[in-house]
Amino acid sequence: KIGLDRLETINEAIVHSIRSGLFTFDPQGKIIFLNRSAEEIIGRSAESLLGKSLDQVFSPEARARLDEARAQGVRNKLSFADGSGRNLILEGSWQKLENREGQSLGELLVISDITEMEKMEERLRVADRLAAVGKLAAGIAHEVRNPLAAISGSIELLQKGADLKGSDANLMGIVLSETERLNRLITDFLLYAWPLPRGFEAIPIRELLLNLVRMIKARTDHVELALQAEPDMIIKSDPRLVEQIFWNLVNNALEAMPKGGKLVISAGKETRDSRPGIWITFTDSGVGVPPEHLDRIFDPFFTTKDSGTGLGLSTTWRILEELKGDIEVSSEPGKGSSFRIWLPADSGLETREDRS
Ligand code: ADP
Ligand code: MG
Questions:
Q1: How confident is the model over 54-107, as pLDDT tens digits?
Q2: Closest CA to 226 of 285, 287, 289, 288
Q3: For site-directed labelling of 76, which of 2, 62, 179, 328 has its Cα 20 to 30 A away?
């Protein structure tokens, strides 16, 4: 038989090792106990939390969600910013604490940090949606491309044989340039639908970015540019696809700052889950993305621009999927946006291992 002492020690050990954050409140609503996970999730020490009430720990919005969870006896999600820049998604539920006689001793609040899980679920949702649309798009694009090639080939032959003058020559020119435009659209479309890496090469990222900045400067003069990149960042990847990603993000940044602003590109090394790699951020001071658009901007054809195709970010997403990279966005409407990508040091290696 286990002695009472030992049982207490075991209970204590369980409460302390459990991954959920536990808070106990007295009947007056003051925190009288919390475990280690609770300290970690909230990012404050037990001493600074004991005796505090709920509204001294959570924002009014988060409190409202917790009150609702208590009233309805359910688990609720809430967002929590700990002041050090961490934004967490938490889940909270309540339990009444009663002794054997049914007297209330207070309440227990159980908090779990579900931030990573939520992110993963969202990624899976988007990936599913993109895979379905991508297949459809690829099918249609192929079907359109073949007759298109036949049309432009025939027209070119006709143009060579015929001695066209004046408006006839003009019309022929329009047919040719429009077929070309259609062809470009279809090519973009296929790149989105099926961005297969063609070949992996060693890419010096800093040099690629320097070159990118030079080209942006040649294209625009009303945007201030800054580049901060670590030296010696060499990754093995498909240069065509990597450049495509950069341009998609740069174009969006420039389009978000029609009246000028600042584009900061920074890059450095970062190992993720013991996979070496690099990160690059594109931070603009443009119009920003409203929160209600944030989970849609990676959808194919989602655009807020008159002449947008809505394929830029979805293609970027697809390419990063192929290269086993990742993208994150943070944005504040009116202030600007930051797109952060991560690329493994060797996409080819990852792809091979993945597929074997
Ligand atoms: P497009 O540029 O053709 O609209 P994208 O897929 O590149 O398509 O972008 C989709 C949408 O995401 C844009 O229409 C815009 O609303 C939003 N967006 C993307 N990048 C930015 C940015 N840097 N700043 C503000 N909004 C952006
Ligand atoms: Mg775009």
A1: 999 999 999 999 999 999 999 999 999 876 777 899 999 999 988 888 888 889
A2: 285
A3: 328
CA atoms within 13 A on the CB side of 110: 12
* Contact of 186 with 337, CB cutoff 8 Å: no
Residue nearest ligand 1's atom 20 by CA: 252
Cβ neighbours of 56 (radius 10 Å): 11
Regarding the beta carbon of 130 and ligand 1, being less than 6 Å apart is answered no
Distance CA 30, CA 50 (A): 8
CB of 154 within 8 A of CB of 160? no
Residue 204 contacts residue 234 (beta carbons within 8 Å): yes
Tokens of 94: 């309540």
* Neighbouring-strand partners of residue 106: 97
Per-position b or e across 12-23, b if 16+ CB within 10 A of its CB: eeebeeeebbbb
Q: Going by DSSP bridges, is the β-strand pair 104-113/76-81 parallel, antiparallel, or unpaired?
A: unpaired
pLDDT, tens digit (0-9, with 9 covering 90-100), for 112-137: 999 888 888 887 777 777 677 777 77
Question: What's the number of CA atoms in the CB half-sphere (13 Å) around residue 206?
Answer: 9
Q: Which two tokens stand for residue 155?
A: 């027209």
